Amino acid sequence: MEELLTRLEEILAGWLGGAVLAQTVSKLLLIGVTGLVFGALWMAVGRLFGYLDRKTDEWCGTRIQGLKIQRQRIMTEEDIARLMHGTVKWVRRALKAILLLVFINVIFVFFEWSREAAVAVIGGAALVVENMLIAFVAYLPDLFVIMVVILLARVVVHLLKVVFDGIAAKRIRLASFYPEWAGTSYNLLRILVIALTLIIVFPYLPGSGSPAFQGVSIFLGVLLSLGSTSAVANVVAGIVITYTRAFKIGDRVKISGTEGDVIERSTFVTRIRTPKNVEVAIPNASVLSNHIINFSAQAKQAGLTLHTSVTIGYDVPWTKVHELLLDAAGKTERIEKDPAPFVLQTALNDFYVEYELNATTREPGAKQQTYSDLHAHILNAFNAAGVEIMSPHYQARRDGSAPALPPLAG
User: Which residue of 31, 35, 225, 314 shows the fewest CB atoms closer than 10 Å?
Assistant: First the structure.
């Protein structure tokens, strides 16, 4: 710039015949040319971003569509258009500010008293840009490693999903690996792949070696370790429950005193719907620490054995009691004929004999209704035969009074 200014002054001195006048005219000419270039750039920036503003309004509703997840709208077309207008406005202001600073520094270069400061400012800005470019170029190998690692991780996760989807659909069969394990196994391996990816990528992130970055990482680790103890316990318990195959979705179970059908087994809780249509959420840690009674595990193959007891006096022959109980079981719906019901004498008490009727059903979900029907048929059978059921306990005078029997049902 200084050589250009000197050369211009020499040319003008030959024309104007004076060094001082030539110096003044040369500076004015350069300032004028610089002003014209600056004005042209200023107008070009204004026109360009004005055009982008107009196109944003035209594209709203056509090329610019709202953002939504399924049926939930996150951002409307107007919201995106306003965001784009704001971005255009601030980028335009930033470019005009840069142009103005460049113009001022170029003007200062023309004057000896400000030339040194202007050159220093321009040199400093150029050094910053140069350092940024050098840092970016130096970071390209690390960026390439990060991209390759992430790409490989995505490929591995995709392959795992395909394989475990095949196992869940029973298109792929592995020895001693059950289809209900597929979802949990896929999630575990996916988390493992993501964790390994983060571990590999972390040293290549910009600023990963800085004390601030390390301090934030330690702080987040402490927060997670202190605040997620119970959550981790539930997650681990859910994994153990899955691989022990204690129950499946739809099974009739009894856990922590709650009986019902399993409707969901999530990462943290197991949800049960009781026969009263009440939904109970039990943390997986509680499920694992309690006994799990599964009424459905053998119901389809061997059947579920229902049992109920009656107490009958010693004056009634046991063969008669057996006959009445088996007759009641045979009239009850959902009671299987094979295996056949059977009766056991479970106790010889002071005043009565305790009999236990055992019968098989293959519908554990209707266990309560089956018990109710069975008890109703037992009452009808014993009432029709004139046999008193001695439980609950009551006192009766044996002086010829009528037996304590309710009327026949129906």
Answer: 225
In this prediction, residue 403 has a pLDDT band, given cuts at 50, 70 and 90, of low
Instruction: Please give the single-letter amino acid code of residue 103.
Output: F
Asked if residue 364 and residue 271 are part of one domain, the reply reads no
Q: What angle do CA 318, 319, 321 make, to 5 degrees?
A: 65
- pLDDT confidence band for 204 (50 / 70 / 90): confident
Q: Rounded CA gap, 300 and 360, in Å?
A: 11
Q: Write the single-letter amino acid at 374.
A: L
Structure confidence at residue 224 as a pLDDT band (50, 70, 90): low
Query: What does the chain come to in residues?
Result: 410
- Would the pLDDT of 226 be above 80? no
The letter for the amino acid at 19 is A
Rounded Cα gap, residues 28 and 47, in angstroms: 28
SS3 (DSSP) at 205: coil
Banded pLDDT at 381 (limits 50, 70, 90) = very high
Radius of gyration of the chain (CA): 44
- The first and second tokens of residue 212, run together, are 């601030």
Tokens 């107009």 found at: 54
Residue 202's domain spans which residues? 152-229
CA distance 258 to 253: 8
17 and 52 together in one domain: yes
Burial class (CB in 10 A: 0-12, 13-18, 19+), 137: exposed
**Could you write out the three-class secondary structure of 334-380?**
CCCCCCCCEEEEEEECCCCEEEEEEEEECCHHHHHHHHHHHHHHHHH
Per-residue confidence (pLDDT) for residue 177, from 0 to 100? 83
CATH number at residue 310: 3.30.70.100
* 108 contact partners, CB below 8 Å, separation of at least 6: 114, 115, 117, 118
The total domain count for the chain is: 4
Q: Give the model confidence (pLDDT) of 35-90 as tens digits.
A: 788 888 888 888 888 888 888 877 776 777 777 766 767 777 777 888 888 888 88
CA distance from start to end of the chain:
116
pTM: 0.58
In angstroms, the CA 115 to CA 5 distance is 12
